[in-house]
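Supplementary Methods. Inverse-folding protocol.

Structures were first reduced to a discrete structure-token string of length 179. This string, shown here, constituted the complete conditioning input.
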């Protein structure tokens, strides 16, 4: 890394242009491989959590939770595929995708596919329920809030580490024998 001050991109970078920084700048290039690894891990956890709730919880809250987790999973997959896309765009895209799937359920096609191949019901659902849109909105909002919190946390950590390195460089320049 060169001696320029690092401006603080995070593993959950909001994308080029959205944060005022040039994404082509090698000094602040986000660690997209780290971001993708985190997103993949979060997607696996979301799948396990969603399937666990789906198959083991009979409470009334289980269906809205699994619907919200579905939207979170869609958001994680969108962010994985487009790591520089702004987080709010990812959340809106996940909600829109979930809404399209919900409207598709009104056609009866997903239910017919589920009869032919049972796992299709997990991906496409089977029954149109208008209140599911609330769960999708909550899932998108949860993704956005958690992603922004993680992004902020990573920026603080990086900023602290980089500030500490800069102080050490200044100290080394003032007193070269101290190093």
């Amino acid at each position: 890394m060169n001696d320029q001050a690092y401006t603080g991109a995070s593993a959950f970078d909001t994308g080029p242009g959205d944060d005022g920084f040039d994404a082509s700048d090698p000094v602040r290039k986000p660690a997209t491989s780290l971001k993708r690894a985190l997103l993949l891990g979060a997607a696996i956890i979301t799948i396990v959590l969603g399937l666990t709730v789906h198959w083991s919880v009979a409470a009334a809250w289980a269906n809205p939770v699994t619907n919200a987790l579905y939207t979170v999973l869609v958001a994680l997959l969108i962010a994985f595929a487009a790591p520089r896309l702004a987080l709010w765009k990812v959340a809106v895209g996940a909600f829109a995708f979930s809404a399209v799937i919900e409207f598709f359920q009104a056609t009866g096609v997903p239910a017919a596919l589920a009869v032919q191949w049972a796992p299709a019901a997990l991906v496409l659902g089977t029954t149109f329920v208008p209140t599911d849109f609330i769960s999708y909105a909550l899932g998108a909002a949860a993704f956005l809030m958690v992603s922004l919190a993680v992004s902020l946390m990573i920026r603080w950590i990086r900023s602290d580490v980089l500030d500490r390195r800069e102080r050490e460089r200044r100290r080394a320049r003032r007193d070269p024998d101290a190093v």
